[in-house]
Amino acid sequence: MSHPSVAIVILNFNGKNYLQQFLPSVFASAWFNKKIIIADNGSDDGSVEFLQKEFPSAELILLDKNYGFAGGYNKALQQAEADYYVLLNSDVEVTPGWIEPIIELMEGDNRVAACQPKILSYHKKEMFEYAGASGGWIDTFGYPFSRGRVFDDCEKDENQYDDVQPVFWASGAAMFIKAKVFHEVGGFDDFFFAHMEEIDLCWRLQLAGYTIMCCPASVVYHVGGGTLPKGNSRKVFLNFRNNLIMLSKNLPVREKIWKLPLRIMLDALFAWKSLSAGYSNAFGAVLKAHISVFAWWVTKKNEKAIRRKPLSILNGVINKPIVWAYFIKKKKRFSEIVGNKQQ
Question: Which residues fall within 8 angstroms of residue 225, CB to CB, at 6 or more apart?
Answer without folding.
Answer: 130
